[in-house]
Automatic annotation (TrEMBL):
Pfam families: Amidase (PF01425). The keyword Glycoprotein does not apply. This is VDHAP protein. Keywords: Hydrolase. The gene is Vdhap. GO terms for biological process: fatty acid catabolic process. Signal peptide: none annotated. It comes from Dasyornis broadbenti. Transmembrane segments: none annotated. Belongs to the amidase family. One of its GO terms (molecular function) is amidase activity. Residues 5-212 form the Amidase domain.
Amino acid sequence: GEALEVNREVNCVTDFIHGCEDQLQKLKKQKEKGLLYGIPISIKDHINCKGHISSGGMVKFLGQVKEEDSVVVQVLKHQGGIPFVKTNIPQTMINYDCSNLIFGQTLNPLNHQKSPGGSSGGEGALIAGGGSILGIGSDVAGSIRLPSSFCGLCGLKPTGNRISPPGCSDRPFVLAVTGMLGPMARDVDSLALCMKALLCQEMFQLDPSVPPIPFNDEVRLTGTPM
C-alpha cells in the first residue's frame, strides 16, 4: 500500500513482482528463518527477476522477459527476504538523474522540484518516501551513493566482485570500473544486515567467482567514527 502511495506521488516503481504473496506463505512453513525473514525488498530495474523484464530504461529490452532470478535475488529469497517491486532508472543507467522514455521521470519525495539522483533513483525515491525499508541498487560511478545523498539515505557500494552481478546480459557498453550491486536503506545497521545476509554459502555456491569471504561484523564495529 505504502509503495503504491509513494509511486503515485513520485513515479518510482516500474513493476510489482508477482508471486511475492506465495513466497511469504512458503516462508512461513520453513523451519529455518533467514536473516531477512519477511522483509519486503525493492529491486533496481536492471536486476533480473524471473518473469519480469530488465529494461535498463531502453525500449529494445521490453520484450525480453527473464527466465530466472539473478543470484542476488535468489540469495535474498533464501534469506527470507521478499522482493516485491522493481524500481525506475535513467535510460542506459549512466546518468545522475532518473528518467527514461518508458517509465518517465522519477521525482525526489523530499522535494518534487528536485531529482532523486541516479541511476538507482527509483530506489532512493521509494525508500525515502517510506514505500520500502531495504533496496538493492547498483553503482559504477555514484549510482547508489548519489541517490542516497539526494534522498537522505544510507547506501553502500561494496568492493568490486564482492556480490554476484545483476544477471542482465547484452550490455551496450564495457566499463573500466567494476559496477557493483549494493544495499540502500535508512540506516547503516540495515546495510550491514543486508551484506551479512548476502555474503553467505548460498551466494558462494551459486556464483563460484565471488570470493567466499563472509561479512566481518568486527570490522564495522571497530571502525572509528569520523
